[in-house]
Each structure stands twice: as C-alpha cells, then as structure tokens.
Amino acid sequence: MGQTVNTEEQTDNAPLPPRVRYAIFCTLWRLEDEGSFVSDVTIVGAGAAGLAVAAQLKSRGVDSVVLERGDGVGASWRGRYDRLRLHTTRRLSALPGLAIPREYGRWVRRNDLVSYLQDYAEKFELDVRTGASVQRIEAAPDGGWSLQLADGTTRSTGTLIVAIGYLHTPFIPAWPGRESWSERIIHSAQYRNAKPFQGQDVVVVGTGNSGAEIASDLAEGGAASVSLAVRTPPHIVPRAVAGWPAQMNGILLGGLPERIFDPIAAGLMKVQMPDLRPYGLARPSEGLKKRLRTRRYVPLQDVGIVTDIRQRRVQPVAAVQSFSADSVELEDGTRLQPDVLIAATGYATGLRELLADPTLINSDGIPVVHAGDPVRPGLYFVGYDVTLGGMLRQVGIEAKRVAKHIADSADHRETEASAG
C-alpha cells in the first residue's frame, strides 16, 4: 500500500508488485450498488477505540471503513456533561500515533478530547462514514459478516471490528412504581450542567464517577439540595497525590493478585481519604480488584465529592427502593420528595439487540472474547476490557493487537494471491 503505479509504463509481461496487486484487490472489493456495500474491513463506531484500530490498520497497509451512527467522531464524548475532564493523564490517554497537545493540560476537557479525536481521524485520513447506524449484525452465508443499517442498506465485510463501547445505551432500573411518580427522572447521559436545576431538590442515584461529579456540579451550581443515593459504598481515590496520578498505581499494581492488591488498596484509601462514615457514607466491604473482576468496577476519583460531602452540600442517603405518586422511598424507609431524580446508573452495551448470534456475548451483554482476540474468524470486539490503567490507554493496546492480527492475515492472503 502507498505505492504509486503508472499504468502507462506497465507492459503485458511485467506483473504488478504483490502489495500493489493486493491494494487493487481491496479497491475492487469496495462496491456500492443498489443498496449494498462490500468492504474487506469494516469498523463499527468512530469513538476512540474504532479510530485507534483504523489508524493502526492503516499504518500496516490495511484500509478500512468506519461506520458511525452519530454526526461526527467521538459522538459519545460530545454529549457528556460540561465539566467533564478525563480522570487519566494527557500523556497516558493519547491514542497510538498522535500525542494529545500539551496546551490541553494534564486533565483533558471533554471538548478538547473531541477536538483531539477529530485531529486523529484527519491525521490518518480515516474513511469515516457518519450517520451510518448499524441495526443488526449476522454471519454471512458465504463467509464474512452482514450489517443491516437503519437506512435499509446492507453492508457485507470480510473482517468486522465492533467498537461501539460499553457506554452505549443508557440504563435506568425498573424501580417499582417508577411510572406513577409525578416528577422527572432523567439519565445522567442527559445531564449537561446545573443551570436547569438551580433552586431544586435533586436526588442523584449512583456513586460512580459520573454520579459523584454530577452531584458536586449540582451542589456547586445552585441546587437547593443534593442527595446521593448509595447502594454499594464506593472505593474513593484521589486523582493524584503529590503529582502522582492514581492511574499510575493502577498500571503498576494492577497485575498483582487480589489477595495482595486489595489490602494495599484498602490501606491506601484509609491513609489518603478522610473517613466519611460520620457523614453517612460507609467504607466499602469488598476488595477493589474483586469488584473489578466481578462487576467491572473502577474506583471513584475524588474531584470534589469528598469536600462536598464533608461540607454537607451533598448528603449520602440509602439506595432507592421504589416510587409512589409523590415520593421516592429509600431502602431504609426514608421518603424523599425531590423535584427531579438523575439516574447515574450506567449503560448497557447495546450488543444484545445488535448481534444476531446471542452466544457472542455473556449474560451482562459483554463479548465473551475481547481485548484484541477474535471471537469468531474475522470478528473482533475492541473497547470492552475494563482495567485500572485507563480506558483510552487500554483501547490503544487492543488496537495494536487487532491491527497486527488482521494485517498478518492480509499478508497471508497477499502471499497466496502472489503465488497464484
């Protein structure tokens, strides 16, 4: 790939170089006719994972088409709340092949990350097709994969990488009585800033990073009261201590077994974070790495929630149990009457509805094989491995693995074509 051929200088007896022959094969493989599309390598999702895979493939001489349901790259990041910053450092969050600009600061803002992803796609001249919403994926009868799109077209591909991520479809629990409650329930995906909630009583459900940061944003932005509903006490870590980021602890210590890692993590939390039990927030009873393994849990990084709890701007309360027409009932019997409830209750992967073959995912909707290995010949899932070292760093690692595997397979096909 990347060679220029002057066809006028070719003779009937001079065969094209093998890589040029393979490039022509890939070009001819892409056809667009009467609602069908054929591509040798297709990536679903133009977030960080999809772009990283496409760039790594291109660096190895393999072109791909990236299908994105949104109107631009990094669509999932564009819609996040305004104050969002990465909880991982700029240097350790860059995708392979392009550093994040130093002027974005150590903790990159949401809008700056979107700009970086746009620059990334442009640098590698990636073929991103926006507004292409894939509705169904199934194995093609003659090999490869068939994709049904929302516009009625069908796309076929020899190799498919699914990179829509695990933060795909907002999830709100089916609490008893939820439909009867007269006030608003929104998912954290719909939250932008505190302005619409000034002067209101708000309940935030969930103590992940989004829930805690939204609670702080509301408290600091003029909400009349903020209650944080807690089912499982979080593991809280400072974002950095004396300049040393929590992410680096995850990278350096993440390989330790649970029996060693979890006591270390618990000890660090006691030393680094104040005891919040007097303010209504218990300490976690389960080890951090065990929760990572069993629940795909990452710790809550403190970017203000500890101070807000200690200063009573955010009040931890028991988990939500049910709703009535005029109140929210908690598991300890307390009844609250907020103006709005914000559910920071996570996301579904969306893969259950997307994949025709249910054996490709487990009961939680996570691919049974991911992190860079193919789950079936020609089918990969990237961006579903949760680690303590950071999501963006991890997708870069996976992108390199997938690209190498696909490129090696392409080289094998090229060798066979040359021998033929």
TrEMBL record:
Pfam families for the chain: Pyr_redox_3
Coiled coil regions in record: none
CC per GO annotation: cytosol
InterPro entries: Auxin_biosynth/cation_transpt, FAD/NAD-bd_sf
Molecular functions per Gene Ontology: flavin adenine dinucleotide binding; monooxygenase activity
Keywords: Oxidoreductase
This protein's name: NAD(P)/FAD-dependent oxidoreductase
